């Protein structure tokens, strides 16, 4: 490390906390073996919280470090905190389930921390090289945790599928990045924006298409969603909860920064790409989930649809649109953590239920759980006055203001169709004949479910903190506005 880089270290303090901490935890686990698993798990939560505090304490003004490769601004602060919240929530949800299934090992929290470190780098990446480094650090750890239940064929299959398809998407992203570098002469986002200002090079457009393919894979958007249902179903449920929250937030942040930061001069070109991906994701997410019987596969298609709704805001290409995306992702993370908390509390004879039909009559035996689960389903469907309604309202309003009324109408229609499978679950819970009762809910799951339910149910009462923070984050990407 050169002396010139030392003044930049305060900019990457959250990343340093995770990097140094995880090295220490690896050594602790190596020396003490499996006995260290509870200690490593607790220390990991402390590390993630400490990184979150460091992120919150960073200055709001835009700061660029390491020769422009790394940027800290209100946008990065907002999305880093969201990714850290998702990681902490998923780790807490995993503690009881892994203990019951005898999967407790010090490697799991270490891998989650390494993946989260990659996410923080992705969110602050300000050139193509740092973007790829963060992306691969995040992905390599996730490949392993998807296959963490080594004695389960479905889990190992999920890890292998994600690895093979992830390698393909990384290759496409790298090819796109090489085209963009070749035709712009720089890897810096600001340099690319300057180089393509006022011109529309065919090479840049082709590079952008391949780059978009890699980004779409990471947020599981159509047509690069093929890994999502199988990986969601095969991976252990706490791993699925992690996949559905923190990595999605980080990948969406990376996508926004790439399009808005590197290609503002060709907004109409990338808008066409985003509009196509958004429509395809919303439509497929709405229709494909209807026939699903496995609830984790259903949540996979639900996730695909929700990424499509979020992209409606990005398609607007405005600060208001990005503001809508940030609000959407924050509410989506809260709803998803609550939904998986419900799923992790539904256990019979020590085995988690995974079939939608097993929810029949839940209200007879567990009325509170039934109410909260139904509320989360209503929110995912976008029923007012729950938080999910306002998430869709912000992105659709931004699209209409940007002249994309047709896109907003398609989103509303897809949302109405998608409400069918959410309401079907509510019907099963309240109107079908009850099945056998579930085991008592673990305390850690109750904690996550309570926090998620508060956000989902009471967002409309106090929306200002989230809306204000998202607005400041979005404006930091549009300094001229």
Automatic annotation (TrEMBL):
Pfam families: Proton_antipo_M. Keywords: Cell membrane, Membrane, NAD, Quinone, Translocase, Transmembrane, Transmembrane helix, Transport, Ubiquinone. Its main location: membrane. Residues 125-418 form the NADH:quinone oxidoreductase/Mrp antiporter transmembrane domain. GO terms for molecular function: NADH dehydrogenase (quinone) (non-electrogenic) activity; NADH dehydrogenase (ubiquinone) activity; quinone binding. It catalyses: a quinone + NADH + 5 H(+)(in) = a quinol + NAD(+) + 4 H(+)(out). It is a multi-pass membrane protein. InterPro entries: NADH-Q_OxRdtase_suN/2, ND/Mrp_TM. Its EC number is 7.1.1.-. The chain crosses the membrane at residues 12-31, 38-57, 77-94, 106-123, 129-148, 160-183, 203-227, 239-260, 272-291, 298-319, 325-346, 367-387, 393-423, 444-462. GO terms for biological process: ATP synthesis coupled electron transport. It is found in: Cell membrane; Endomembrane system; Membrane. One of its GO terms (cellular component) is endomembrane system. It is an enzyme of class 7 (translocase). NDH-1 is composed of 14 different subunits. Subunits NuoA, H, J, K, L, M, N constitute the membrane sector of the complex. NDH-1 shuttles electrons from NADH, via FMN and iron-sulfur (Fe-S) centers, to quinones in the respiratory chain. The immediate electron acceptor for the enzyme in this species is believed to be ubiquinone. Couples the redox reaction to proton translocation (for every two electrons transferred, four hydrogen ions are translocated across the cytoplasmic membrane), and thus conserves the redox energy in a proton gradient. NCBIfam families: NDH_I_N, PRK05777.1-3. Belongs to the complex I subunit 2 family. This is NADH-quinone oxidoreductase subunit N. The gene is nuoN.
